[in-house]
Amino acid sequence: MSATPSHMPAVVYFDRNGRRIARQTWLALSARPDYVVIARDPICVDGNDAWVITTWLGIATTTTDPPIFQTFIDEAGTAPHVRHLRWTWSSLQEAQRGHREVVRQLTSART
Predict the structure, then answer these.
(1) Longest dimension (CA), the chain
(2) Are the C-beta atoms of 67 and 86 separated by less than 8 Å?
(3) List of residues 6+ apart from 46 with CB closer than 8 A
(4) Are 106 and 43 in contact (CB under 8 A)?
(5) Full-prediction pTM beyond 0.90?
Protein backbone atom coordinates (compact mmCIF):
# COMPACT_ATOMS: atom_id res chain seq x y z
CA MET A 1 0.00 0.00 0.00
CA SER A 2 1.36 3.42 -0.89
CA ALA A 3 0.68 6.44 1.26
CA THR A 4 0.36 10.02 0.10
CA PRO A 5 3.45 11.91 1.21
CA SER A 6 2.60 14.57 3.81
CA HIS A 7 3.86 17.36 1.52
CA MET A 8 1.47 16.37 -1.29
CA PRO A 9 -2.15 17.56 -1.09
CA ALA A 10 -4.83 14.91 -1.29
CA VAL A 11 -6.73 14.68 -4.56
CA VAL A 12 -10.51 14.92 -4.29
CA TYR A 13 -12.97 14.06 -7.08
CA PHE A 14 -16.28 15.82 -7.74
CA ASP A 15 -19.20 15.36 -10.13
CA ARG A 16 -20.66 18.29 -12.07
CA ASN A 17 -22.96 19.10 -9.15
CA GLY A 18 -20.01 19.50 -6.78
CA ARG A 19 -20.63 16.25 -4.90
CA ARG A 20 -17.62 14.18 -3.90
CA ILE A 21 -17.28 10.98 -5.93
CA ALA A 22 -14.95 7.99 -6.04
CA ARG A 23 -11.99 7.94 -8.41
CA GLN A 24 -13.56 5.13 -10.46
CA THR A 25 -16.72 7.20 -10.97
CA TRP A 26 -14.59 10.20 -11.97
CA LEU A 27 -12.71 8.04 -14.50
CA ALA A 28 -15.97 6.81 -16.03
CA LEU A 29 -17.42 10.34 -16.25
CA SER A 30 -14.15 11.72 -17.68
CA ALA A 31 -14.48 9.33 -20.62
CA ARG A 32 -17.81 10.88 -21.64
CA PRO A 33 -17.38 14.00 -23.83
CA ASP A 34 -21.07 14.86 -23.34
CA TYR A 35 -20.40 15.09 -19.60
CA VAL A 36 -17.02 16.82 -19.78
CA VAL A 37 -17.79 19.60 -22.29
CA ILE A 38 -20.08 22.20 -20.77
CA ALA A 39 -20.05 24.70 -23.65
CA ARG A 40 -18.12 25.35 -26.85
CA ASP A 41 -18.43 28.50 -28.94
CA PRO A 42 -16.51 29.66 -32.02
CA ILE A 43 -15.02 33.15 -31.95
CA CYS A 44 -12.69 35.18 -34.13
CA VAL A 45 -9.71 36.78 -32.38
CA ASP A 46 -7.35 39.07 -34.28
CA GLY A 47 -8.59 37.55 -37.55
CA ASN A 48 -8.03 33.97 -36.38
CA ASP A 49 -10.70 31.40 -35.69
CA ALA A 50 -10.71 30.02 -32.17
CA TRP A 51 -13.01 28.28 -29.71
CA VAL A 52 -14.00 29.21 -26.19
CA ILE A 53 -14.43 25.88 -24.42
CA THR A 54 -15.67 25.21 -20.90
CA THR A 55 -15.05 21.78 -19.45
CA TRP A 56 -15.63 19.87 -16.25
CA LEU A 57 -12.39 18.77 -14.60
CA GLY A 58 -13.90 17.24 -11.49
CA ILE A 59 -10.60 17.03 -9.66
CA ALA A 60 -9.14 19.31 -7.01
CA THR A 61 -6.75 19.39 -4.10
CA THR A 62 -9.16 21.33 -1.91
CA THR A 63 -12.74 20.81 -0.83
CA THR A 64 -13.45 24.50 -0.21
CA ASP A 65 -14.84 26.00 -3.44
CA PRO A 66 -12.83 23.63 -5.63
CA PRO A 67 -12.19 24.91 -9.18
CA ILE A 68 -13.69 21.87 -10.91
CA PHE A 69 -14.51 23.62 -14.21
CA GLN A 70 -12.30 25.55 -16.60
CA THR A 71 -12.82 27.82 -19.57
CA PHE A 72 -10.00 28.19 -22.07
CA ILE A 73 -9.25 29.30 -25.61
CA ASP A 74 -8.50 26.61 -28.19
CA GLU A 75 -6.07 28.66 -30.18
CA ALA A 76 -6.20 27.73 -33.87
CA GLY A 77 -3.57 30.38 -34.61
CA THR A 78 -4.78 32.85 -32.00
CA ALA A 79 -2.48 35.64 -30.87
CA PRO A 80 -0.30 34.82 -27.82
CA HIS A 81 -2.07 37.36 -25.57
CA VAL A 82 -5.31 35.38 -25.94
CA ARG A 83 -3.97 31.85 -26.40
CA HIS A 84 -3.08 31.27 -22.75
CA LEU A 85 -6.16 32.74 -21.10
CA ARG A 86 -7.84 30.38 -18.65
CA TRP A 87 -10.64 30.82 -16.12
CA THR A 88 -11.74 28.40 -13.40
CA TRP A 89 -15.12 27.94 -11.75
CA SER A 90 -16.42 26.12 -8.69
CA SER A 91 -19.98 25.33 -9.80
CA LEU A 92 -21.78 24.35 -12.98
CA GLN A 93 -23.91 27.51 -12.89
CA GLU A 94 -20.82 29.68 -12.39
CA ALA A 95 -19.09 27.89 -15.30
CA GLN A 96 -22.07 28.37 -17.61
CA ARG A 97 -22.39 32.08 -16.75
CA GLY A 98 -18.62 32.55 -16.92
CA HIS A 99 -18.44 30.90 -20.33
CA ARG A 100 -21.11 33.22 -21.74
CA GLU A 101 -19.34 36.25 -20.26
CA VAL A 102 -15.94 35.22 -21.66
CA VAL A 103 -17.46 34.78 -25.14
CA ARG A 104 -19.22 38.15 -24.82
CA GLN A 105 -16.06 39.95 -23.71
CA LEU A 106 -13.83 38.40 -26.36
CA THR A 107 -16.26 39.02 -29.19
CA SER A 108 -17.20 42.56 -28.13
CA ALA A 109 -13.54 43.51 -27.63
CA ARG A 110 -12.81 42.57 -31.23
CA THR A 111 -15.74 44.24 -32.97
Answers:
(1) 57
(2) no
(3) 78, 79, 82, 110
(4) yes
(5) no
